[in-house]
Amino acid sequence: MFAFAQFTGLLATTLNIGKYFIKDNRVLLVLLMGIYLFLGVTFLLLGAYSGAIICMIIGTLIMVEYLYEQNDEKLPNKV
Length: 79
Prior knowledge:
By secondary structure, the chain is mainly alpha-helical. The chain contains three helices and no strands. Helix 1 packs antiparallel against helix 2 (25-46) and helix 2 runs antiparallel to helix 3 (49-70). The longest helix is centred in the middle third of the chain and has 22 residues, at 25-46.
C-alpha cells in the first residue's frame, strides 16, 4: 500500500508540474481534477483522512466548474 501511495503521489506531482505548460482552460480543469484525485488517493492510503476529504471536495468543485464551462455558462454563486 505504501508503494502505491508513493506512486500516486509521484503521479500527482508530475501532473502538477505539467499543468504550467497547458494553455487551454478545459484541459487544465481536467488535469486539475486528476491531480486532486491522485492526491486524495495518496492521502487516503497514507491514513491522512482529513487531507483525502479536502482533496476530494476540491476535485468535485473543479468537476462542477468544468461541467458548467462545457455548456458555456457562468458558475452560479450558490454552488
